[in-house]
Design brief:
heterodimer; A: 351 residues; mainly alpha; globular; B: alpha/beta; Elongation Factor Tu (Ef-tu), domain 3; Rossmann fold; six-stranded antiparallel β-sheet; five-stranded parallel β-sheet; 30% strand; binds FE2/S2 (inorganic) cluster
């Protein structure tokens, strides 16, 4: 780790920022998340209704698809991801909290909490510990040896994006080598493999039955319209979430860390690693909401349980603190960040 | 009904990812009906009076709120700056106000002692002024008296512990005035301790004693040399005793009654923990752990975080990072106070989600894993 940085001071400043912001959290933030939930419901059912109006004019169907895709994106990103992080637990609401919440995606919420909240957020970009770095599929830095399959990893990446929800849902099972491979040494499973399988299949089946059987059947003669609409909405959601998430950790300047580097890490060093392991995307307010505020990946990684409604507010202060300590703050417009991601995937596909 | 509920759950789980259709729609319904919540009743705030040190809330419950028995309490939920907070309070209204004959004219009176250091009571006024509609539970508890007692009855109250007795006395007075059964009128004693000049509802009590001649009122002040031992001196073992007040008060009454050889089965008590103010977290605390329906009572030393503490006692709880990041160790704290080890803050008394790995027991706790 970098020795020129005063980690204690860094920790103190970021802790204070978090404490002060948390103290302001209240009515406004509760109203915000409820508001987003209302919009999600309206878009979802508006979308599902419009899908059936395709026979009047295909345009209605098109709007329906977009509306449903938006609803799923809101559900997964701004509501699901953040509520499952416990960002809104302070509300004491029996439905909007990290214990109760489940989302409209193939991945079981509890599995996500184990693999994402715990592994990814605790060991961010630590090679060998954070499976989110490349998802065990892509080679994204020289920390990994080159293998022949990396040659076509760009195609792998496209497939992953298209099937993203299934990738996410299979993530823990892959880590636990439930179906194939040898268990990694030292990995302690928290849930037994059969339970993982059971949850994977029940949640997955529910999603399939819902979007590709029940709703199309309800539409009667419009079966195919609805089926196709749901398929495209899910696809759009997959592409969007995958793209945003890749921009958060795989732009060119993002750092990786070794396991030795983060042994006995102090709070300041932890903050340092979180900041360098992430990158932001600049954009407008609506854009941020649709990314679930993952466009503030740095802030999210520093303060994973700060309500997303506060990321826009703390960002300038975080940037100021990091800059003062000489720590890079990676940010840029969407296209620039995304091009860097693509370059990175291509670059490391060669030895 | 049961089939419907199950259908509701199944549909909601499959299609809506929530536990019921109601909870899926809740944020939308709240737009039209403020404070609409599944499993809770709504109550309109009719008035709020700030007597010194005490807040009196008058609530008008919605139509299908069940009939309350005199002496029962409700859980009151308020939204205080975005946070839902819940506390139990005894109902002090009389039978006329609670009668189901005119459901729309019912009013629930809650008398709440304001503890300036507490997290809930000082905010009641502020939050009720912005809300006008609050949530209440169905009336609950078995702190109720029989209609025509065939033994002497003792009501022993301290401070705001008078509230359930007001309801009971109103109820008994109502029965007495409407019935000819006055033959076996056993005495009813009310022993009521409070600070000097802080006895609540004295006028009401005097009015009741006119209708209920067998009522013996004792309004006492400890600081003026009144003692429990004198007040309870004539309580004979056949009496029914009801106690309501702070936990220490209840213990003191129990000790007295034990000395008088008054049998435990003849007693009922409702008591509350006095709020903790920045208490040292040392020593040991009782922790009641509810896990998949079974409960275990443990004693934890206060210096460890709860996660380590529970593990040492052989309780397996979910965890991940153990440093407060991942929220996997969260559980429902039903009651009690914990300290957040990262911020040093003390929690509320009531029900909320906590993270075991960064919480430390400050009082006895009830946890649901
Ligand atoms: S174990 Fe991760 S927050 Fe407690």
């Amino acid at each position: 780790m970098n020795n020129t940085i005063n980690f204690n001071l860094l920790a103190e400043e970021l802790d204070t920022l978090k404490r002060d912001t948390m103290a302001e959290v209240g009515r406004q933030d509760a109203a915000y998340i409820r508001n987003v939930i209302v919009w999600q419901r309206v878009l979802e059912w508006g979308g599902r209704a419009l899908l059936m109006l395709g026979f009047i004019h295909p345009l209605w169907w098109g709007i329906g698809v977009l509306s449903l895709a938006c609803a799923k994106i809101l559900d997964n990103m701004e509501i699901g991801h953040n509520v499952l992080h416990g960002q809104y637990d302070w509300m004491n609401d029996p439905h909007i909290n990290s214990r109760q919440f489940d989302w409209d995606i193939a991945c079981d919420g509890k599995s996500w909490q184990r693999i994402h909240n715990y592994e990814h957020h605790t060991y961010t970009n630590v090679i060998g510990k954070d499976r989110d770095f490349g998802y065990g599929l892509l080679r994204l830095s020289n920390d990994f040896g080159w293998r022949i399959k990396n040659l076509w990893q760009f195609i792998t990446y496209l497939n992953l994006s298209v099937l993203f929800q299934w990738g996410v849902s299979y993530h823990e099972l892959a880590a636990e080598r439930v179906f194939m491979g040898k268990k990694k040494q030292g990995r302690i499973s928290r849930v037994d493999a059969n339970e993982l399988k059971r949850r994977f299949f029940t949640k997955g089946a529910k999603q399939l039955i819902k979007d590709y059987l029940v709703f199309p059947l309800l539409a009667g003669p419009l079966f195919l319209w609805v089926l196709l609409g749901n398929l495209i909405a899910n696809l759009l959601r997959n592409l969007w979430t995958s793209t945003i998430i890749f921009c958060g950790h795989f732009t060119s300047d993002v750092h990786t860390f070794t396991q030795e580097q983060c042994e006995n890490e102090t709070q300041g060093q932890w903050y340092y690693r979180q900041a360098l392991g992430s990158s932001n995307i600049s954009g407008g307010k609506l854009f941020h909401i649709l990314t679930g505020h993952l466009s503030f990946q740095i802030e999210h990684h520093l303060f994973p349980d700060l309500p997303s409604s506060r990321y826009q507010q703390v960002a300038p202060q975080v940037q100021e603190i990091l800059c003062r300590h000489g720590i890079a703050y990676h940010t840029g417009p969407f296209l620039r960040q995304y091009i860097q991601v693509i370059k990175r995937i291509l670059l490391y596909s060669l030895p | 009904m049961n089939v419907l509920t199950r259908l509701n759950h199944a549909t909601a789980k499959t299609f809506l990812h929530t536990d019921s259709i109601g909870s899926y729609l809740e944020p939308i319904i709240q737009r039209f009906k403020p404070a609409w919540r599944t499993h809770w009743f709504r109550a309109r705030v009719l008035s709020i009076k700030n007597l010194d040190g005490v807040v009196e809330l008058l609530l008008s419950p919605e139509k299908h709120w069940p009939q309350a028995k005199a002496g029962q309490h409700v859980l009151l939920t308020l939204e205080v700056n975005g946070r839902l907070m819940t506390r139990p309070f005894s109902i002090s209204s009389g039978p006329q106000q609670l009668s189901n004959d005119h459901p729309r004219q019912r009013s629930i009176r809650l008398t709440i002692k304001v503890n300036t250091e507490g997290g809930f009571t000082p905010k009641i006024v502020e939050s009720v002024l912005t809300q006008r509609v609050v949530n209440i539970s169905a009336p609950q508890g078995d702190f109720v008296t029989v209609d025509f007692p065939n033994n002497p009855v003792w009501f022993v109250a301290a401070g705001s512990g008078i509230t359930p007795f007001l309801a009971m006395l109103h109820h008994l007075a109502h029965l007495a005035s409407g019935s000819a059964r006055s033959g076996a009128n056993h005495p009813i004693h009310l022993v009521y301790f409070a600070k000097a000049l802080e006895h609540l509802y004295v006028d009401e009590l005097l009015a009741i004693s006119k209708v209920l001649p067998q009522l013996r009122l004792q309004l006492l002040v400890r600081q003026q040399g009144h003692h429990l031992s004198d007040a309870l001196l004539h309580c004979d073992p056949s009496s029914q005793v009801f106690v309501c007040g702070p936990a220490q008060f209840k213990h003191a009454v129990d000790q007295q009654l034990d000395m008088l050889l008054h049998p435990q089965q003849q007693r009922r008590a409702e008591y509350y923990q006095a709020p903790v103010v920045a208490q040292q977290s040392t020593g040991e605390h009782d922790v009641l752990v509810i896990q998949r329906g079974t409960s275990t009572l443990l004693t934890l030393t206060a210096d460890d975080n709860l996660l380590t503490g529970l593990e040492q006692q052989g309780i397996r709880a979910n965890f991940g990072c153990r440093i407060g990041v991942c929220h996997q160790c969260r559980c429902v704290k039903k009651s009690g106070v914990v300290r957040n080890l990262r911020t040093g803050e003390l929690s509320q008394q009531g029900e909320q989600l906590i993270q075991l790995c960064i919480s430390q027991a400050v009082t006895s706790l009830e946890l649901e894993l």
